[in-house]
Amino acid sequence: MRRRLLLCLPLLAFLVLAGLLFRGLHRDPQALPSALVGQPFPAFSLPGVQDERLFTRQDLLGRPALVNVWGTWCVACREEHPVLTRLKAEGVVIHGINYKDDNASARRWLAEFHDPYQLDIRDDEGRLGLDLGVYGAPETFLIDARGVVRYRHVGVVDQRVWDADLGPRYRALVATP
Amino acid sequence: MRVGWLLLLLVWSTLSQAAIDPYGFRDDAERARFQALTRELRCPKCQNQDLADSNAPIAGDLRREIQRLMAAGRSDEEIIALLEQRYGEFIRYRPPFEGRTLLLWLLPGLALLAGAGLLLVLTRRRRPEQTLSDAERQRLAQLQAEEEP
């Protein structure tokens, strides 16, 4: 009996390994756990896209909001833009960080399409992006009224992502501030 | 005329040099430190390259940030900790040795030991009995004697 159990051992080891590898097949290797979730949104002092008035972290506080990192050079941001515009129409608070972009192009983009952002922050050198751990636009952070990062989504925000991940979390924050 | 061309080429060659190494290091030790740090840290975008290797814009930003922090007099540990705060543990090629990563660090050694142990047990068990008892030896001698004509 003991011998038979021992003979099963290689099969068992194989099954465990196969199970782990199978799970690995369905995971997105690009999705990194954010180091910032649960941490306060980093402090900054940056000009706006439209004017030179300085924005700081204080301006983000007071109500839950999405903070969307975007750029005109980013193709996926174009795809995401109509979704953000619709969310704004539904009353969702969205702030924009224009990340490492040419200011003239950014203004043209906002005028040409639609500006879904409450605050238009300009991060020319990517310093705020660096503090946020941004590694590719678009990225969207969900912050609560006290400015603590609650969730981060890397990649395009489409209807599926909003319905499954961001929307429920945002509504929960609005319901219980 | 030819000298002019040669001079122009000479000037150009220094330009290309500057494109490769835009960081102003004070000395070779500082350069070596920078190279060691950028080899130790992983690019968050192209995940199988270190910061020194990667051409991704974010890797360039992080290299500049590392140089800025070095110029500000931060130690290697401080720089790694600062980047880890922003990009998570992922950015380190060598995760710290602690409770959570115990299995990761020790499993290869343990697997090697287990394999060696298994091999030892199996070879021991297979070794055939080589010594004959007195009775068997006698019988062998008898048989050999019978065979001979």
From TrEMBL, chain A:
<dbReference type="InterPro" id="IPR017937">
    <property type="entry name" value="Thioredoxin_CS"/>
</dbReference>
<protein>
    <submittedName>
        <fullName>Thiol:disulfide interchange protein</fullName>
    </submittedName>
</protein>
<keyword id="KW-0676">Redox-active center</keyword>
<dbReference type="InterPro" id="IPR036249">
    <property type="entry name" value="Thioredoxin-like_sf"/>
</dbReference>
<dbReference type="InterPro" id="IPR050553">
    <property type="entry name" value="Thioredoxin_ResA/DsbE_sf"/>
</dbReference>
<dbReference type="GO" id="GO:0030288">
    <property type="term" value="C:outer membrane-bounded periplasmic space"/>
</dbReference>
<dbReference type="InterPro" id="IPR013766">
    <property type="entry name" value="Thioredoxin_domain"/>
</dbReference>
<keyword id="KW-1015">Disulfide bond</keyword>
<comment type="similarity">
    <text>Belongs to the thioredoxin family. DsbE subfamily.</text>
</comment>
<dbReference type="GO" id="GO:0005886">
    <property type="term" value="C:plasma membrane"/>
</dbReference>
<dbReference type="GO" id="GO:0017004">
    <property type="term" value="P:cytochrome complex assembly"/>
</dbReference>
<dbReference type="GO" id="GO:0015036">
    <property type="term" value="F:disulfide oxidoreductase activity"/>
</dbReference>
<feature type="domain" description="Thioredoxin">
    <location>
        <begin position="35"/>
        <end position="175"/>
    </location>
</feature>
<dbReference type="Pfam" id="PF08534">
    <property type="entry name" value="Redoxin"/>
</dbReference>
<keyword id="KW-0201">Cytochrome c-type biogenesis</keyword>
<dbReference type="InterPro" id="IPR013740">
    <property type="entry name" value="Redoxin"/>
</dbReference>
<dbReference type="InterPro" id="IPR004799">
    <property type="entry name" value="Periplasmic_diS_OxRdtase_DsbE"/>
</dbReference>
